[in-house]
Design goal:
This protein has 159 residues and is α/β, with parallel strands linked by helices. The chain has one domain: Rossmann fold, CATH 3.40.50.2300. Helices cover 39% and strands 19% of the residues. It has five helices and seven strands, in the order E-H-E-H-E-E-E-H-E-H-E-H. It has helices spanning 34-46, 57-66, 83-92, 107-119, 134-149, and strands spanning 26-30, 50-54, 71-74, 77-78, 81-82, 98-103, 123-129. A five-stranded parallel sheet has the order 2-1-3-6-7, with helices on both faces. Strand 6 (98-103), helix 4 and strand 7 form a beta-alpha-beta unit. Helix 2 runs parallel beside helix 3 (83-92). The modification 4-aspartylphosphate is found at residue 75. It comes from Rhodoplanes tepidamans. Residues 26-145 form the Response regulatory domain.
């Protein structure tokens, strides 16, 4: 047993390292529509996420190069560049981050894009039409947060 009677340092009785608080999950919203970015971000924030936003392909690539995210929300139309190009960048970076495609594109295009992403070994866990159903989005956010909290890997999540 340690004798701390002569130890006058302020933290003398704190020799056991305290566990760090778990960092909140993070979401990258990639959408050129300001209103949709704001809506998705607000729902995510209320679901306990820290949110980063990218309004363009270039912003998305810059953020993906600097930070890791728990989840990515991706629109398929981003001005000059499409969401498919972002998916190719994510694949080239070998990221396994779950992706939710949120787009006003047809269901067929959303599904085909998800299938293409899966061929690139990416994990599109869901596709949602715009305007997004907020309850459905919140359920996805909570599901991803809970899976992440218990260490479940995204492999095998289905769209």
């Amino acid at each position: 047993m340690l004798d701390r009677s002569e130890d006058h340092t302020p933290n003398a009785t704190r020799d056991v390292e305290q566990p760090a608080a778990a960092a909140p999950p993070t979401l990258l919203v990639i959408d050129d529509d300001t209103v949709h970015r704001m809506i998705i971000g607000r729902v995510a924030h209320r679901a306990g996420y820290e949110v980063a936003e990218a309004a363009s392909y270039e912003e998305a690539v810059a953020l993906l190069e600097r930070h890791a995210y728990t989840l990515i929300s991706l629109d398929l139309t981003l001005g000059r560049h499409g969401g498919a190009e972002v998916l190719h960048v994510i694949a080239a970076m070998d990221l396994k981050t779950p992706i939710v495609i949120v787009s006003s594109s047809t269901e067929t295009i959303r599904r085909e894009t998800a299938a293409m992403a899966n061929l690139l070994s990416l994990n599109v866990c869901r596709t949602l039409p715009k305007p997004v159903d907020l309850a459905q989005l919140r359920a996805i956010l909570i599901d991803v947060r809970q899976r992440n909290a218990i260490g479940l890997t995204p492999a095998g999540w289905s769209a």
